[in-house]
Amino acid sequence: MLSPEALAKIDRESAKYPAGEKQSAVMAALAIAQDENGWLSTEVMDFVAHYLGMPPIAVYEVASFYTMYNLKPVGRCKLTICTNLPCALQGANVAAGHLKQRLGIGFGETTPDGAFTLKEGECLGACGDAPVMLMNNKTMLSWMTPEKIDALIEDQRKPE
């Protein structure tokens, strides 16, 4: 289900916790599994649960609570925009509206070409940089104006 390299990474994360507490590495294990597969199918979550020795429902609860986990396939570029109050006061709603209009999709949707998925996120912890977005769960983007969003979209549409 997961490669030997992914399992080694999960083992390294599990080793950070006391013996018998490897389920504490569930968030890291889900991130590793998602990095390898692009999203978390029920089968992958079941595998992670079994590997960490925890009930599958506990893994589903973690995966469905946090917006960083993809419970269905996503586009090549997943954009998560924070719409909590500090970001909203600094233009997140304008940025979100611009993103929806430019991409032609709403929150939780993927463009027909599979290039972009748009998600609404909870606080990303960078209120001083509002409005903020997270690209592919790895790259924080700050002070997102419509102009910066347009440049980002054009950059991501370029062939690799």
Please tell me about this protein's structure:
The chain is α+β, with helices and mostly antiparallel strands and 160 residues long. 46% of the residues lie in helices and 12% in strands. A five-stranded mixed sheet has the order 2-3-1-4-5, with helices on one face. Helix 1 runs antiparallel to helix 2, helix 2 runs antiparallel to helix 3 and helix 3 (42-52) packs across helix 4. The longest helix is centred in the N-terminal third of the chain and has 12 residues, at 26-37. The protein is elongated. The model has no long low-confidence stretch (mean pLDDT 95).
The share of residues in helices is: 40-55%
The major sheet is characterized as: 5 strands, mixed
Q: How widely separated are the two ends?
A: 28 Å
Classification by helices and strands: alpha+beta
Low-pLDDT regions:
none
Instruction: Describe the global form.
Output: elongated
> What string gives the helices and strands in order?
HHHHEHHEEEEH
Q: Which strand order do you get reading across the main beta sheet? A: 2-3-1-4-5
Residue share in β-strands:
5-15%
- In DSSP terms (H or I, runs of 4 or more residues), the helix count works out at 7
Q: What is the residue-averaged pLDDT?
A: 95
What is the CA-based Rg, rounded?
17 Å
Task: Tell how many strands the DSSP assignment holds.
Answer: 5
